[in-house]
Amino acid sequence: MNTKYYIFCHFALLLSLVTFAQTGKQKKADILFNKFSYSKAADAYHDLINKKKDTVYASKKLGDTYSFLRNPDSAVVFYKKAIASQENIDPIYYYKYAQALRGVENYDEAQIWLKKYSEISDSLKTELPLNDSNFLENISSEKPVYFLNDVKINTEFSDFGAYEFNGIIYFASSRDQGVLTKKKYGWNNEPFLDIYVTESITDSTVNHKNKLKGKVNSVFHDGPLTITNDGKTMYFSRNDFIKNKRGKDELGSTNLKIYKASLVDNKWTNVEELPFNSSLFSNGHPALNADNTKLYFTSDRPGGFGGSDIYYVVIGENEAISEPINAGNIINTQQNESFPFLNSEDVLYFSSDGHLGLGLLDIFETKTDANNHVIDVVNLGLPINSSKDDFSYFINSDNLTGYFSSNRNGGVGSDDIYAFNKLPELFVTGTIVDIETKEPIKDSKIVLVTPTGEELATAISDENGYYEIKLDRDNNYGLKIFKDGYIDLTSLISTRNLDKTLSKITENIELNPKLIETIQDAEFFPIYFDYNKSNIRKDGSNELDRIVNYMVNKYPEMVIKIASYTDSRGSNKFNLKLSEERAIATFKYLVDRGVSPSRILNYKGYGEDNLTNNCDDSTKCSEDEHQKNRRTEFIIIRN
Q1: How far does the signal peptide extend, from start to end residue (predicted)?
Q2: How far is CA 53 from each of CA 26, 35, 46, 58, rounded to the nearest angstrom?
Q3: CA 369, 373, 375 angle in degrees (round to 5)?
C-alpha cells in the first residue's frame, strides 16, 4: 500500500495523465486503481466478481480499494475472501486484513492475523503490539473527560478541519453546491474541497455563499488552515496549483503544498507558496504554535521514519523560514502521522495509525518533561477516538471547547465535524500557615493519598505557603502534611459529585507547632458499627475508653477530629444521615466521660465516601468487607 496516498486521501490530488489501452475488464479496473479513481475502480472489480472472472485477484484489489477509501467494513469482507481463496497468498494481506479488522472493532481476530503475519514476515515494523487487550480494557474503563455537542453544518459530503478564530469557524468541505460546479475527485467521486466559514456549528444553511472570500479557494483541494495571532496571515493546504499552473511529480500526479495568504480589505489574497515545498512529495495540514514562531505540518518527504511524519519549521524575523525539522521518533512512527495542532500551552496533538489505537487513525496528545522535550504520547480515548479515522483535533484557548473530525459510523457524510467540551483539570490548592501566628509555612510536604494510604502525588509549599496538586474526579483522598517542628496532620477531601465546571478545590491548612513532647503511643484505632446502626458496640467502647484516658489523664491539651462513615449499601442521602448519627454518638460518648467539647474540633459524617476497599455499588462484597467501611476514625490535630 502506498502510504503517501493512504494518509493524504482527504487532500491529495492524484491525477495521472498517462492513458492506457483497455484490453480487458481486469486491465480497465487496474487502470482506474492506478489512477487513484478508487470509487470507479471498486465498481469495476465488483463487475469482475459478479461475472466470476479473476475473483481472487479482484477480491484482493477490492480490499485494497476499500482500504484507500477508508471503508474497513467492506475491506474486511474482500480481504477475508481473498485469503480463504488463495493458498500461499502474499503475507502482507494478513497484515492488511488485521488492520481492517481493527477498523471494525474485531480486535481479537485482528491480533490472530497480525501474529500470523509476524511469524511469516520479518518486515513487520509496526509499533502496534501483538497483545493490546490491556490497552483496550484501560481505554474502555477510563472515566470520560470529553463530551460531544450537537453539530448541524455537516453534509453528505466530506466536512472536516474545523478551526475557530475570533468567533469565526473555518472548515474544509466538498459540498460544491454553488452556481458553478467543479470537477469531482476521482479518489472518492466527491467534489474538490473548498474552505467555508460560519459563525455557528449549529447553522444548517451553510452553502456556497459561505465560501472563504478572496483568492484561497481554487479548482482543486483547499484546506485545512491556520491563522496567525494578529489575524493577518493564513497558512493553508492546497494541491500544487498557483497562478493557474498545476505542478506534477514524475508520475504525473499533483501533490499537496502549503501556501500563505494575507488579509486585505476582509479578503484573503496575495497567495504565496512556502519555500520548503516540492512537487515531488506532499506537505500539508499547517499548524502554528502559541507565539507563531514555529509552523508544524505533515509531510511524506524523503528521510522520514515512514509513511507521513510531523515536521516543523522555525519562523524568524521578516518571516524567514528554516529548513524542515522532523519532530522525532517519539511522535513519528514507521506508519503515518498527520494533522498536527498545538493548543495555547504548546501541547502538540496529532493523528496516527502507527501508535497504539482503536483502529485506523486515532488522535494523540504529547507529554513533555521540565525542559519541554516530548517524552511520550497518549491516546485521547473515547469518545474522541473510534475504530475509524479520527483527525483534525482543535481546541480553543480556553482548553475546554473544540472540534475534531471523523468518518465513524453514525455520521452524516464521508467525514464529519464533531464538537466537544472537555472537563477542566481539577486541582486542590491552598495555603499552609501556623495555627497561632497565621504566618505561611514554607517547604511543607503535602502528600496526596488514597483512602487506603497509597501515595499518589507530592507537593512542597512555596514561600507563601501555597501548594497545588492535581486530582481525579469522583474519588476520595487524604492530604498528609509534614513539616519539621510541627505536628503531622491529615485532611480528608472528596471530589465526588462536583460541578463539572469546577477546576479547583481550596483546602487551607493550619499546622500546630510541637509545643510538647511528641506522643509515641497515641495511635487511635477506628471503631466499627453494625449494619444500619449507630449505637456504640462493646468493642467500640473499649477503644473510646482508651481515647478518654489519653485525652483526660495523659495529654490534656490533645485536640482531635471525628469522621464517621457507612458502607455503600443504601441511598446517598440515607447513608449521610446514618454517618452523622454515628459521629454524634461517638462525640457524645467522649464528652459524657469527661472530654471537653472544645477539644473535639469537628465531628462529621461523610456517608459512603472514603471507602477503605472496592466495595462500592458495582462490586459484590462479603459482610466482613462491608464491615470495614462502617466506622468512625479519629484524627489527632494537636498534642
Answers
A1: 1-21
A2: 8, 22, 10, 8
A3: 70
